[in-house]
Amino acid sequence: MHSRLFTIVAVVSAVLSLPAHAAEPAPAEPIKYRLCDCHLHLADFLQHTDGAKAALAAMDLAGIDETMVCGMPVVKEWAPSEKIQPQYYLDDDSRCYWYSATDTLVERELEKLPPDQRKRFHPFICGINSEDKNAIEHVRRMLEWYPGFWQGIGEVMTRHDDLTALTYGDVAHADAASLDPIYKLAAEQDLPVSVHSDVSSVWRREPIYLPEIENAVRTHPDTRIIWCHAGISRRINVPTLTTELRRLLKTYPNLWIDIAWVVFEDYIAKGGQIDPDWVAMIEEYPNRFIIGSDKVGHFADYPHEMQKYYLLLDALKPETAKKVGHDNFLSVLPKKAK
Ligand SMILES: [Zn+2]
Fold this sequence. Notes:
By secondary structure, the protein is α/β, with parallel strands linked by helices. The protein has 14 helices and 12 strands. The protein has a single domain (about 35-335), classed as Metal-dependent hydrolases (TIM Barrel). Strand 8, helix 8 and strand 9 form a beta-alpha-beta unit. Zinc ion binds near residues 39, 155 and 294.
């Protein structure tokens, strides 16, 4: 009987893609700010997830009211030559492939929640190969399959250093012809688009890829575009970043800057010290910066990943801290979602 029960549990766990031991979130600091999260992946690079309920529990611990939620548009292949199943895209040399069913995973997870909990999640469509001109068809299909459900598009993966190098197919660009109809549809449907587009390579110090995201923002003035991580990724070092950001923010009112992930540790709070130039820039454009966890499928360190922003928020004027920590994210959502 026990072994039969074990088999049933094992099969159910496998079908639901649950990890064997979903870790409990680490204890959080006392809540100092009510926050929103502009960047949360419900699934990891194997499409595994602790689930929306676990995400919600972590949000409650960290004082997070609402969050963007998307899946993960790629899967890390487990190559026959690899003995250990890779969990992260950098775990081994195997490739990643585009995986559109991630959007359905998000929908199924959110369906499990009662309406008052579900409304704290703002789901974005992300399961597209962004350099494929067929991608628009998937976006339309998702809007048709789940009417009224989606509140944005993204994280659209374009240039992403090692991830780009490891993913099958051509390199995707933020201003690719394949994304043009998606930006247009987003404007028609009042949906924001969040785009990961590295500002440079890991070797050059000039922002060599900046024109790609700038073209996208410039040629789609009616589309609200969120630039993920201000174009920063691991090992990308562009000394002129804040100069470029100021120019972009001044020129394009349809651009928002997501400061999730390594841009915080590598630029904004390098060595644990908040950079006054970033504080000055955020005060110059208090409505345009948003924070996020960039957690992928598992939420054990979620509170830490959101409460790290306290350091920055403490350095801002209280009204700016409230905007950056909470209100700016809500401001980019569709009118119907607010
Ligand atoms: Zn991300």
